[in-house]
User: Which sequence fits this backbone?
C-alpha cells in the first residue's frame, strides 16, 4: 500500500508510516483473537505508542518469549523505506529465531507468478542465492540477504489454508524452504 500511495503522488515516507500504523492495528486485532483463545501475548511497536503497545526492546522481547508469551512485532523497523519483510527478518535475527515464516496467498515460491502463469513450477527448496540470482520476488533482497548472512531459514507458505499455520509450526513440509543448503533444485 505505501508504495502504491507513493505512485499516486503521496510522499513515500508518509505512506510507509501509514503502513506501519496499519500493522499496529493488525497486531492488536491478532492479540485480541489470541487472548480470547487463552494465549498470553504482547504487542511490541517500533513506533512509540505506549497506550496500546509496548516499545520494542530486544531484551524485553526475548524475556517475554522465555516466559512462553507470544510476541507480536508491529510498526516494522520504525523507519520508512524498509519493508515488512526486512523488519521481520531483522526481528527474527535479533531474537535468535529458528526460522522466519512468510505467510502468503500462494503455497510457496514459483518460477513465475502462479496467478498469471498457471503452469509455473513450484520449488520445494531454494537457496538464498537461488532466490537472489533468479530475482524471485517473494521477499525483498534486503530481507533475504539478512537471513542468508545469519543462516536463518525461511519458509514461504499459503496462509489461506488454516491448517498450514499449525503444520508449519510442527515442522511438516509445507510450502518452500529457503536456506543455505542445496537439495539439488527440487521442484514440484
Assistant:
Amino acid at each position: 500500500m505505501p508504495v502504491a500511495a507513493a505512485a499516486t503522488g503521496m510522499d513515500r515516507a508518509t505512506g510507509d508510516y501509514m503502513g506501519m500504523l496499519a500493522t499496529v492495528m493488525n497486531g492488536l486485532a491478532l492479540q485480541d483473537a489470541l487472548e480470547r483463545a487463552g494465549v498470553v501475548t504482547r504487542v511490541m511497536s517500533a513506533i512509540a505508542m505506549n497506550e496500546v503497545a509496548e516499545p520494542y526492546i530486544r531484551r524485553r522481547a526475548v524475556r517475554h518469549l522465555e516466559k512462553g508469551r507470544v510476541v507480536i512485532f508491529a510498526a516494522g523497523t520504525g523507519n520508512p523505506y524498509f519493508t515488512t519483510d526486512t523488519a521481520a527478518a531483522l526481528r527474527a535475527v535479533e531474537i535468535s529465531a529458528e526460522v522466519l515464516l512468510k505467510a502468503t496467498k500462494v503455497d510457496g515460491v514459483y518460477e513465475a507468478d502462479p496467478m498469471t502463469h498457471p503452469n509455473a513450477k513450484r520449488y520445494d527448496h531454494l537457496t538464498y542465492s537461488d532466490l537472489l540470482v533468479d530475482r524471485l520476488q517473494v521477499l525483498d533482497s534486503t530481507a533475504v540477504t539478512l537471513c542468508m548472512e545469519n543462516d536463518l531459514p525461511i519458509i514461504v507458505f499459503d496462509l489461506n489454508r488454516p491448517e498450514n499455520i499449525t503444520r508449519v509450526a510442527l515442522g511438516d513440509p509445507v510450502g518452500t524452504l529457503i536456506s543455505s543448503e542445496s537439495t539439488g533444485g527440487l521442484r514440484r
